[in-house]
Amino acid sequence: MEPIEVLGMVAGSISAITFLPQVIKTWRTKSAADISLLMFTFATISVILWLVYGIAKKSVPIIYTNSMVLLFSLIMLYFKFRYGKQQIPVAHEA
């Protein structure tokens, strides 16, 4: 693998990891009420298009990155439909 591809893989890994804290938080709290369905729908469509582009160009970094982001986006969409209506009660101070 060429150094520029390694750079692409590292950049892609960092980009994909940015989704991970939200996935973990939503999974732990079982609440997705504040998650934007529209944002994750657009993100998923975008990532699918990038993945098709990467496959057409045979670009391993693009395929790798967008496969990871697609997985996290699909998980978040699943959480949105599963936990989206649930709200965690918030304690109010007197």
Structural commentary:
- The chain crosses the membrane at residues 6-24, 36-56, 62-79.
- Its main location: membrane.
- The protein is an all-alpha fold and 94 residues long.
- Helices cover 74% and strands 0% of the residues.
- It starts with a helix and ends in an 11-residue tail after the last helix.
- The relative contact order is 0.21.
What's the arrangement of secondary structure elements?
Layout: H1 3-17, H2 20-29, H3 37-57, H4 60-83
Helix pairs in contact: 1-4, 2-4, 3-4
Labels describing this entry:
94 residues; SemiSWEET; mainly alpha; transmembrane; MtN3 and saliva related transmembrane protein; PQ-loop_rpt; membrane
The overall pLDDT, averaged over residues, is 88
Quaternary status of these chains? single chain
Question: Which stretches of 5+ consecutive residues score pLDDT under 50?
Answer: none
β-strand number = 0
Shape, per Cα inertia axes: elongated
Relative helix content: over 70%
User: How large, in whole angstroms, is the Cα Rg?
Assistant: 16 Å
Relative strand content: under 5%
**What summary fits the major beta sheet?**
none
Order of helices and strands: HHHH
Distance separating the two termini: 61 Å
| Sheet/helix structural class | mainly alpha
Number of distinct helices: 4
